[in-house]
Amino acid sequence: MTHRYFVWDISPVIFSAGPVTIRWYGLFFAGAFVAGHILMTAVYKKEGRPVQDLSSLMNHLLLGTIIGARLGHCLFYDPVYYLGHPVQILKIWEGGLASHGGAAGILAALLIYSYKKKDQGFLWLMDRIALPAAFGGGLIRTGNFFNSEIIGRPTAMPWAVVFQRVDSLPRHPSQLYESIACLLIFIILGMTYRKDTARNTEGVISGLFLTLVFSSRIALEFFKVPQAAYNTEMFLNTGQWLSIPFVLVGMGLIAEVWTDHRFGIFIKDKDANKKWE
Prior knowledge:
The protein is mostly helical. The chain has helices spanning 24-46, 54-77, 79-84, 99-116, 122-146, 174-193, 196-199, 204-220, 238-258, and strands spanning 6-8, 13-17, 20-23, 161-163, 170-171.
């Protein structure tokens, strides 16, 4: 008996009229930032921080995410083409955003913002941004599913999906795997944030976020079609190699807290957390 797989054939365009085109991916991407603003508003109110600062923070994060994600895609996944055609890097509307570059862009944006706002330290911000980042990651991966991109490897599993816009092969819905992973991580981080000790110990939530998100990325990459334009004959693909440094930093942050900042690599001032209590 032949198994009937779920066929996905949704157009990536929701609406188009003249120069105006609304796409599913853009809708989910924007939704990630709207949800992030709502979550951060609740966090700032809960902790007595100036809510009016959020406009500046979200602008920093939006620019950091887009610039970082675009450069990450161009330099990590197809460097030969983009270095030979640098003008194409600016054509962001043609698609091509890399999550690792986006993560690096967010970290750079937080560094710049925290330098301007001395009362909102880098690690304190990282711990708070981790929650909307995990939730937003789930939305963005759902947008990839609607776009029929970042597809999985062929499989005979009963939950396989045929991405009709790509081919007729049943494949792992790898975008949904990552989306579900991000939402589960969001729940874990939310439960951690609710604990006073964890919330007031800088580096705990950031460490959990980096470790869980990028460890899951390494694992789930095995179900995906490689994204890089070049072949690597290695066991790990580009996305997995790029995830390893983030996992190591996350584990390092957790180790710093666990050992009471004995090493002082990531957190120099062991009394820094007390001012938030």
